[in-house]
Amino acid sequence: MSSKSRWANDDDPETEAILAQRKREKEEKRRAKAEKQRQLDEQQQQQQQRQEAKLQAQLQDHNSTQADAPPPSKRRRLSNDHDQARQSPQPSKPNTTAEGNNLLTLPASEWGPCRHVDNFERLNHIEEGSYGFVSRAKDITTGEIVALKKLKLEPTSPEGFPVTGLREIQTLFEARHQNIIELREVVMGTKMDEVYLVMPFLEHDLKTLLDDMREPFLPSETKTLLLQIISGLDFLHAQWIMHRDLKTSNLLMNNRGEIKIADFGMARYYGDPPPPKLTQLVVTLWYRAPELLLGADKYGPEIDLWSIGCIFGELLGKEPLLQGKNEVDQVSKIFALTGPPTTQTWPEFRSLPNAKSLRLPSSASAPGSGAAHPPLLPRGKFPYLTNEGLRLLSSLLALNPNARPSAKQCLAHPYFREDPRPKPKEMFPTFPSKAGQEKRRRRETPEAPKRGQEAPKLDFASVFGGAQAGADGPEAGAGFTLRLG
Amino acid sequence: MTAPTSSGLKFLSNALATPEQLSNSSSSIDGVAPDLEASIRFAGALLTQAAGVYLRLSQDIIAQAIVTFTRFWIGADGGSLRIYNVQDISAAALYLTAKLSFQPTSPRSILNVYGFLMSKEASPLWCTNPSPVTKEPPNPETYVLTEGQYQARRLGLMRTEARILRTLGFNTHVALPHTVSLTYLQTLGVAAPAVARRVFEHLNAALLSPQLLYVTHQPNALAVAAIYLAAREEGVKLVNSEWWEVFDVDREELGFLVVAMRSMEGFARAELEKWKGRAVPMTVEEVEAEIERRRVEGE
Fold it and tell me: Which residues contact A325 (CB under 8 A, 6 or more apart)?
């Protein structure tokens, strides 16, 4: 009864007859189809056997014949094992051979031409970053909501397709990790210079979220966020990718407490030894490591860990930790927090190009930081942080890049194992999404440096130089900043 | 626990051609005979290799460029020899790969080298300059680009680069078997430099294979096959068991690859013989002329 149409008249024998007829036809069709499939399978099996036999023969006779053996016919993979490969993208799925051994199948992707951007319907504008516009869009065929990032390309660029854009795409394609934004595909417009990255849409970025929150995240939440960010970074570094622009506005978050690293516009591969001629103009000023500010042209993944330190500080205080107005001011803000470098804490810093103009206060070498390695930051700045937390933060914000821990070491830090434990992601509060519909207000965060700009010749004479500047400089580290209300 | 393993492996693996992509190429749809297509692709890969050597690029960049070059022509959505000049795709693939590497090179260097290698009088390559090489250095006027030519070709290079990116869906990642093969050799306890050298020779020759080995097989399989063959040729005894399974390669795949790699020398000789005294068509016009010539001959 249930198979009958709801709209059919129960008492109409004619309709019933028609329905029965239809049912029969359907059944027949299904049977025919099954039969056809069976034949096809059989055929393929035979083919496979034939092929195997041929290959065995080839393998055997290649041992006996000489080098001028005729080229074997091109092997065509059978369509059924191709389907299988498609259905199981998990490469670790063991492939059992006749001998019963488990072979690992490497993950094989495919390539195909870019689809057209018209496959997406643009819904609203989210943001304009230094490398492109981002908008929320709907995939017309699947109805899925995605983020579309249009790459900024200058049509008359002398180098052709900008290397930054290429690196962004290449690194993102390779960095598949739960804490890194997934690049689904690249689509293009009609013109060659319209290139869009299709990525999943996430409701928030950490920067906007922090701006709108009344109170900073709880310690347990901070740990969960930080753990996710660092495990994403650990993966990147394991793939020899430096991000080079970590900051809260590049960390996206969904309403399930998951955080993903985004915006790979500055990312690139590095090696050991590092590739020559790395540009110093990387990382947004407030998150830029001191060795970059002092003009080092040899640097490594440690610069990302400095940025992590700045983000950690920002999660604790809800405000960016080191908001310099320019490079010189940034350096003085850093030294005000960490204390100036000494030959014990950072032996190499004197040889950095911009360190020549730096005049350190003569008393600065005195603080008993000598043995402490690296020195702890002033406790007063972070009143609610535990000792382990302060130790982690101080090591991340170590002036000497060699003293900073690796991402892997960070993950094992006792800070993440002491109470309060990291809060489960599922327990995270949800927030209204600004990117979802409302337009964002412009923020006054400085932009990531533009590629190809001349690295400025910096004069750091004023960092500690002026007597009047000295008053608010080094002293700022002391005293509590407990704000009420 | 499966996720980290797979994501880590992505770095070592390649995108492979699908059966549909292998069964029909854009050129064959456009009526280019399969043997002609294979010849042109072989000559194009040779050209890329030679240009890379002249540009003093390291072999990993050259190898990646050849794989990108090979991928471009595959499948119905790939490039057709009746639309794109082989020399242009080769130059753009090399430029693009070098740009992403630690050893970028300038458009001017690329175009100068290709101008030289494509010159019918000066080129040392058999596939572009069939006449025997003379003792005297070639007259520079036969290969040096004028400023006007350079500017025009530079624009063409940029356009071709964008075309490659679009055709490949920006999939520029190429994993090579070379480094993996050295690790495998160490694991097998083979210390003879002759074997390692032979392995690299096979791997580099396989880049030119008409069987498109680099777009149909993963690097680990290529490495294992090259080691198997090299050890046999050098008379080095490997462990007495099915060691290739340790590196996740089954007997069937190994057998196919070994035969394919062994056939490379014969194939190269046959090509040399086939095109004796003639240049392999490297531009759309030359391809058209060759198709016309074959048509007339067939009548």
Answer: none
